[in-house]
Amino acid sequence: MDRNQITKWFKEPAKMANKYSLHAIYFCTGCGIIEVPPVITARWDAERFGVIPVATPRQANLFLITGYVSVKTLRAIIRTYEQMYEPKYTVGFGSCPINGGMYWDSYNTIKHLDKYIPIDGWIAGCMPRPEAIFIAVTHLWTLIDKGMANAYIRYRENYEFYRRNQEMVLGKLDWPPLHPIHSNVKAIENE
Amino acid sequence: MNESIKEQLESTFKAVVVTIPDGTQIVVSVKKDQVLAVLRFLKDRRFDHLALVSCVDWIEEKEFELVYILTHYTQGGEERTDQERLHLIVKTRISRQSPRLETVTGIFSNAEPYEREIHELFGVIFEGHKRLIPLFLERDYEIPPFRKDFDTRKYVKDVFDKIPFVEDKDK
Amino acid sequence: MSLEILIIIAFGGALLTYLVGKVSYKGRNFLAVAISLVLVAFVAYLYGKPVEKVFYFGFFDLDLVLRLNMLSWFFSITMAVVGTLSIIFSLSYIEGKEKADFYFLMMLVVNAAMLGIVLAGDLLSFYIFWEIMSWSAFLLISYNKGPALAAGMKYIIMSIIGSLCFLVGMLSLYVSFDTLNISQIASAITSASSGYILFILTAFGITFGIKNAVLPFHTWLPDAHSEAPAPFSAVLSGILIKMGTYGFLLLLYVLMGLKLFLGLGSGLLSFHSMLCFLGAVTIIIPTFIAMLQTDAKRLLAWSTVGQAGYIIVGIAFGTNLALAGGIFHFFNHALFKALLFLAIGAVEFRTLTRDLDSLGGLAKKMPVVFIGTLVGICALIGVPLTSGFVSKWLIYKALILEGSPFLAFFALAGTWGTILYSYKLIHNVFLGQLPEKYKTVEKTPFSMQLPVVVLSIAILLFGILPGIPLKVINAIGVSFGFESLSVGLWGITSETGALNTVNIFAAVLVVAVLVWLVFRLTAKSVPVAQEDSYAAGAHTPVDKYHYTAEFYSPLHRMIKPFLRDVIDEFYCWIASSVRIFTDSVRRIYSGDVGHYVMYIILFLAFLIFVQLKWRPW
Amino acid sequence: MVTKTLQIIMSPVLALVVGVFFLGLARKIMARIHWRYGPPLIQPVIDMIKLFYQKSVSHGRMFDLGIVLSLAGSIVVVLFLPFGGIAPLSSSGGLLVILYIMLLAPLGLVLSGGQGANPNISIGISRKLILSLGYEVPLLLVLLAVMTRYKTISILQVVNAQQNTGWSIISFPLFLSGLSYFLILPAILGIRPFDVSSAPQEISSGTMAEYGGKYLALATIEHAFVLFISIALFVNLFLGGAANPVIFFVKMLVVFVFGLCINAVFPRFKIEQAIKYLWKWPTLLALLGLIMTLVIRS
């Protein structure tokens, strides 16, 4: 928590500002959203660290994916993630977004979320408690410090691969691609 | 009171098997083409609430079993709590190869989403249904997912595991 | 160069255009524009040279007078300019339509008639030109068939009632002073009794009130404006309404003279304060009605009724600041209301609809018209740096300093109502999502863009340097007997709080440039299509994603019961009851002779009976 | 002449500092009322630095120019508003000019929002305009009462007049107007009970729905200026303005904290309830104040 070290502010204001003003988009993707209200209200108060919930992806730079991701929610998640402005960070809650978790063999849930959108960090726990969410926020700070929180850069550079994977799962997407697509990656038609 | 309904049903419809497992339930199994008639008959006798339509996959007998659960809000004019209500379960069997059945939305309009769901998840085609479009699933499946012969592990291996991880282009 | 040549050019030109139109429509278009430009040049040339020409007219040994003083010059230059611009606009607006020659003839005749009214020195010629203006406006309003006929009928009936009152007033003046020359009457009327003056005021007041759409007589305006073809509704609401204002000015200040007008009645019950409160009410109610309209031109029509209230308050308040504000607001209103009507006409020309609920997103398709409308609504609201602001500022300052805050409150609250309905106009037409069916709208023709650009430049120019028109208005005030205002090039320099538009302009410009620099220097923003806006993770088609219907629905629900147009219903009730009565009388003439014979016999019997009973003869 | 240009440069900067400090203070006090620690006082500054570095998306030229016009309008109003001793331009335009230039800010915001082509924004805009119509009625009555009471339209003269006749909040007729102004202050600022036009839960923060990056930063700065302007106007007209900026700042702080504590505990009004409230009690008080001023003056 090096918020009040003034020299750091003058050396790299963008990094410090991104660290201490994480506006999280309030979009309940899965079962973990029940943990977010206590985090942002009086009991645990995320605003101490500058984390406040905002209504639209346009104003947000942190995207909390709370819990398992069904195929239908994936469409909304991709759309919201693409409408956020760079630099943007994503945090996955629990084991379901990592590898499907207990829904590993379900026909309707997404197994590895980072095949479709890049994730900066994961929190263990079948719905992590608020303290775990704060630990995630502090880890995100260290990632930003070291410049490793570059999920959005990976998304921008490998956009064709992400787009291809998304279209393999969701079929034809009805919004235009975010970044221009070079034709060398042919979308592999799913069987 | 259960007895009277049992006699009425057996008298009006032939080849109707009515059993009363306990005080609050009556199970009526009917033929495929009698379903509409029975439902209308019961609706006139104050069973005006279609609680649920569900489907059971008897894979050995190669049949689907459709279950309509009817109940009533009021008994003799005043409210009845859920326990005291009489649940009337109408069952019918249709073949698994060509699962076709008349829609009941003509009698109970609230059956529309139930029938869409059964169509989507079991593949039962309801003739005369106005909006037989997908309800929940995003993707389309050859074998509807709720059927017993749908192997979910194989499906996951074929669809999701085949999608490659996003390696960086330069690697 | 004398005035009768001006009148001859105006009317002769109209006929000439009609004849040339038979031959070639290009020639007609060129001639119409040429004549209007000649009129503008001619009037501009006559600046500052008061002239009076008297012609002997045998009938009742009256003399027709054409005179030009500061007041009539100011009105005629406004009319000439706005008339020319609307004719330029209608060149491509009327292109395909049938009866185009008739349309141009009527447009030029209306402009000529209004010029005649303003130059008329005596009441008879005033009345003649007034009649010509009324019926030519009627023919133009009912130009495109259908509902326009009913609107035209409503307009012409009320105009005829107005003209009759004018006729009554004129005859009584002739009987009591046996002259119709305005200046002679003005000197003679001071001796008349106040009761007679009140009668004259009400007679002429009704005429000018109907034309100026003051509240009880406003019902014809919304229908007439929304059904008239766009260029004419610009002239109609820009200038034709202001003939009523000219009439009021003539009546209250030239005919009556200042002391007499202010002296009538006492305290709150004096004529001029009654007129002020009538004007104040005319500001508030139409503004709230305008908010709830869904047809663009009807919204602008109600806004015209509202703005006419400002002018009435300005004129009737009786101090030099208020008068200057009122006349300047007439000038601004002519400019920005013509601009808004022409802009909506351009939109209607391309999208063939003016329903606010189905339009949207035209800013990208019609940038020039969008900027013109933006400047127009800024002037309508009275945003600083537009001329609308200066005139409203004058009116408010006069109202507050003279210590009548309730009038000022009505006027200021009217401004906020104006913001609501003018924003609704620009939002529903130009901002928001562009529907599918208007994606193929092509560019507006140049002849429609030129008037919009010229009017916008005029509004901004007079907003930043209001001294130019204020000098002329000050001269008018002095000619009415007020002491002159200290008018600089950039505004009023007086002791209790000056107005310095150049300072305001400089401050806003510099700060805007600074903020824009900050805006440019920070991270670049990527332009994006209109579909790519936040929809809770969903991707919605364009047509389902534009919110315009019931734009102010909460306010609508709250003030709907208060806004039933009672006056219009009252007039319609009168009209229907008259129709029922006349219908019953009509039945007497049933057509077979037997009835008529029976009527005669009965009548004779009745006469005999009366003679026997009372022996009247 | 030099002091004038210095003042012209200095007063917007001072206003920005005070406004942003108030924003930080508001979040801190709100947090304390909710029994939580709340962000540091400089959190708005951190947010703005982050937003200025963030990329953003524009929906058209009017979308950009509208927000620029809105901020420029607010800054120009600050130039006309005396702040303690500093009153750079208030000689060339009195209260009327301020009233009209205060109109530029919402107009710019709604024009730029309109181009955002998002129904959430349009609903937010229609609510914002209806709300502004709602609070404008009592505000006009209050300003007219002050203007007729001191028979001038320039704020400097109102402030000087209050030096000898005492604060107008205490003098009889204007006490009602002052109270009414205080009641509609949250509506002018658009905070808690009246934040119906930028409600995050209902219409995904209304007029701000499409603002991100530098647009959101400029909008927050504009909100800070509006905060400063409305409270400074209140202090100038009713608490006698001050000779030097420090006392002026203290007066503003008192008014702000007192107002904020009331509003932190209110749930959000529906737009109809807001209008009904605004057109009932504050308008009644303001009308009474105006009538009493007229009666006493004549």
Describe the model.
With about 190 residues, chain A is of the alpha/beta class. Chain A is built from eight helices and five strands, in the order ααβαββαβαβααα. Helices cover about 40% and strands about 10% of the residues of chain A. In chain A, α3 (about 35-40) links the parallel β1 (about 25) and β2 (about 50-55). Chain C is built from 23 helices and five strands. Chain C has helices at about 5-25, 25-45, 70-95, 100-120, 125-140, 145-175, 180-190, 195-210, 220-225, 230-255, 260-265, 270-290, 295-315, 320-350, 365-380, 385-400, 405-430, 445-465, 465-480, 500-520, 555-560, 565-585, 595-615; strands spanning about 50-55, 60-70, 485-490, 490, 525. The longest helix of chain C has about 30 residues, at about 320-350. The termini of chain C are far apart. Chain D has about 300 residues and is mainly α. Chain D has helices at about 1-35, 45-55, 60-80, 95-100, 105-115, 120-150, 155-165, 170-190, 200-205, 215-240, 245-265, 270-280, 280-295, and one strand at about 55-60. Chain D is globular, with a radius of gyration of 19 Å. The chains are: A alpha/beta (about 190), B alpha/beta (about 170), C mainly alpha (about 625), D mainly alpha (about 300). β5 (about 525) of chain C pairs parallel with β1 of chain D.
In short:
The complex is a heterotetramer of chains A (191), B (171), C (617) and D (298). By secondary structure, chain A is an alpha/beta fold. Helix content of chain A is 38%, strand content 10%.
Number of domains of chain D: 1
- The share of residues in helices of chain D is over 70%
Low-confidence stretches of chain B: none
CATH topology of chain B: Beta Polymerase, domain 2
* Fourth-level CATH superfamily of chain B: NADH:ubiquinone oxidoreductase Nqo5 subunit
Quaternary status of these chains?
A: heterotetramer
Largest sheet of chain D: none
Q: What best-fitting shape of chain B do the alpha-carbon axes yield?
A: elongated
Evaluate the radius of gyration of chain B: 20 Å
Low-confidence stretches of chain D: none
**What is the N-to-C succession of helices and strands of chain D?**
HHEHHHHHHHHHHH
Question: What amount of the residues of chain B lies in strands?
Answer: 25-35%
Number of helices of chain B: 4
Per CATH, the class of chain B reads Alpha Beta
Which percent range describes the beta-strand content of chain D?
Answer: under 5%
Tally of discrete structural domains of chain B: 1
Q: What structural class is derived from the secondary structure elements of chain B?
A: alpha/beta
Q: Could you say what the CATH architecture of chain B is?
A: 2-Layer Sandwich
Largest sheet composition of chain B: 5 strands, mixed
**How many separate helices of chain D?**
13
Cα end-to-end separation of chain D: 41 Å
